């Protein structure tokens, strides 16, 4: 039997060791609730930022919509576990599972149809997808009504704690896929825009999601989300072990994706779209795949966040916050997985934890003055990010570095002269 | 020629695909639903509908002033200047300090006794506006010099992230207790608001009384906003079209290397563009604060984004486009706020942005490559 590479074993060993160590510290009460929550939030931020790093750092699509997908994931997952723990019904779980499955099927069906219509513009394709989604959602709700009672009785026959954990696990997965499907639908027309217009449109998406969440009880009709008053009663079952497992899965997926031929295609789109197209890469396809995977991560992270905090408020998903993951990946280095991982934890632990305790009373607001300044200094002096090109051994990719700047005419002339 | 001959030979199906009928059908459906919903709700009270339009006019001209800065800067350096909305905020605060704290607008009557009060107020307000515009212009030049200029040759997104950083810095620095404080601050304004109502002729609304039903209200602030905005727009149009510096700006926007070859100092022209845009935003800040009697450190974010949407809607790079885009956007905004729900106006504004980008990325006044300011 062939043993895995040494770096792989070291990475997994270290990861498991750290996870167990932190879990032990939490179990023995050495880390209090404040710091253990911050550690879990750090992992959640790492998942969101890894998703954004995939979209922006590796694929070069400047997206500010990550926070919107994070919000969708949080609310969708919270709704499912809320209905299970507070109302004792699996209605949210069953219907959303069916919605996710049938919408996925409808996407496949519509894309199969679209392949037979060459030359269709993105907006028309979007309209067809929209029809498919509505049909699928209607069908799912009709079908789900029949299946709610049997599913609830199966879950009720299990021990209570186990059933809750199963519901939680499924809820996180479904929330992630739900966010990914929304991102597919939204990204389809939007990804045809240029880079900074794409950024503004995704920022708009975050704002639209926040407005809808503000009116979730009146306009969307979900009583339990309580609109702008904030959703309460979500079970706090997002333990450190769950978060660590999801972070590990996200890391492995990211790493393996980037080391595959797909990953090289993704990076080639960032480097030069025209050249990538000339090499036979389907640029639009790579963009949408990356966007969907990144949003899937955001949805997972949001679902975990909801069960760490136990309380959701639309203001948490304000678009101002949507710059957080962006700033994290800029600090960590665009296209650096290790940098994102490290900076996410630093961001949470220092900004929310350490500085809050160290700074004297009344100086907490200074944190937010300092970090934009750091960002500015960073952009001017070290645009590569904190970690630059260095990666942990397991995560290292054999990829060209991020293109620094467009070659100036005089530099080209100089290079030619030499 | 070729196109017409094709369409006669091709089938209906091919035409539907080529002319994007499905997408257009979706857009038509959305607009029919929106118009139908609003007219269904508006038919009971036409005066309320007109009142919404008047309110939209008031905010629309302020947005137009901010949008001009976006459109000019984007036209010349292709940068979405996120910090522009915060320059607007700084402008509002400068006028707050000048007028409410230090009563700068009353200086003519203090210096020259016996001056008519109206003339004194006019000179005082003009001084305040000029002061605010100057402060904003200097701030924008400093931002451009220290944050954006070193990144002129970096990828465009680096400059965009820097702009976000500058915007956050201005906001959170403003939120500090000894700067602008994190609270909403009441802004009295330089003059008292007088309101009129239109109901069988124009009448003045006495303080403390309610207007009769079915009347449309407007105030002196609305008139001042429209007059000042149009004046500034005319001045800007004059600068861009008739002066040497305007010519240089248009040349720089059109083709930077060639402009440099023609002896134009591109760096100073970019600084001037930032300064003019910021000055207009500062004037917008005064008008906004006077109209809504409130200043707060984050007041610039949303107007800034909305102004950017207006600039895109009108066609980025075009001065009349900014005005038209802002007016259309604000009408859509007040109507959705009035007839759907107040927070929905942000969602509607961004939906409009996304639709415009998809259907006509060059905006109403189009041709961004030619019509540069």
If you compute it from the alpha carbons, what radius of gyration of chain B comes out, rounded to the nearest whole angstrom?
23 Å
Number of strands of chain B: 5
Helix content of chain A: over 70%
Task: State the strand order across the main sheet of chain B.
Answer: 3-2-4
Distance between the termini of chain B: 35 Å
- So what's the overall shape of chain A? globular
Q: What percent strand of chain A?
A: under 5%
Largest interface: A-B, 58 and 55 residues
Helix content of chain B: 55-70%
User: SSE string of chain A, helix = H, strand = E?
Assistant: HHHHHHHHHHHHHHH
The strand count of chain A comes to 0
Mean pLDDT of chain B: 86
Structural class of chain B, by secondary structure, is mainly alpha
Low-confidence stretches of chain B: 1-7, 368-373
**Assembly state (oligomeric):** heterodimer
| Approximate strand percentage of chain B | under 5%
Q: What is the domain tally of chain A?
A: 1
What's this entry about, in short?
The complex is a heterodimer of chains A (418) and B (373). By secondary structure, chain A is mainly α.
Structural write-up:
The complex is a heterodimer of chains A (418) and B (373). Chain A is mainly α. Chain A is built from 15 helices and no strands. Chain A has one domain. The termini of chain A are far apart. Chain B has 373 residues and is mainly α. In chain B, strand 2 and strand 3 form a beta hairpin. In chain B, helix 13 crosses helix 14 and helix 14 crosses helix 15. Chain B is globular. Chain B starts with a helix and ends in a 14-residue tail after the last helix. At the A-B interface, helix 5, helix 7, helix 12 and helix 14 of A face helix 3, helix 8, helix 13 and helix 15 of B.
